[in-house]
Fold:
Amino acid sequence: MLKKIILLISLPLVLAGCSQTVGFVNVNVDSAANNNQSGAAAVSTTNLAATPTDQVQKSTKSVTSASSSSAVNKISIKIPAQLVLPVLFAQQAPFGNWDAVHEEACEEASMIMVVKYFFRQPLDETIMEQELQKVLKWEADNNYAVDLTAVQTAAILKQYYGLQATVSTEVTADRIKYELAHGHLLIIPASGRDLPNPNFKQPGPLYHMLVIKGYDSKDFITNDPGTRKGNGFRYTYSGLLNAVHDWNDQVAQDRTVESMRQGRQVMIVVNN
Structure:
């Protein structure tokens, strides 16, 4: 009996010792999913889609992750020093037809690239054009406006495509790395004219969306549908994060960069 008592007392200590020796980084995340229209941070700690090991560039290094102000539970995770997920690319004007429809299709093109990744489906210019026409018709039938907010984009990902999508207000480099390390993808709404992308036709898009698929020590690696050179386009951490702003009512009225910069800093976290 005495041996059993000793064993029961010592077991938690052994387990606690393991968690201290593997070099994990503590990251605080909100364990309660919240999909309301306010766009409050909501990242589920369940149903985390594991990425196949051959899709992650492994590293023995870890980077320090910041704590979420809205944290409920702490989860330990080792963040690779660099990582790139194999997300296929096609621009929002697949055949270079930059008409009024395709100039506004960055949200849909970003969604399609994410969808094809999670469903492991092919993507090329023809497929992108076909998928754009389908989702644009569905949006029109369901009374969506031309410019989509982050909350609306997340809703379409769930309702039309059947993916899991939440809007988070914790837009930091550490949080983005955390989500990518779980095999999730990020769709970023941005003030397009604040994005440091020389490939945009000047002055650049007033509002833009793109996909973050990876990172290294200094850059985010993206699929930016706004240019044919957008496959794996690199933005510095600050260059991208400083441009993150959501579509808002004021910019819908006056369509100015100043109003665009007043949009909330949010991102869409997507998984299956």
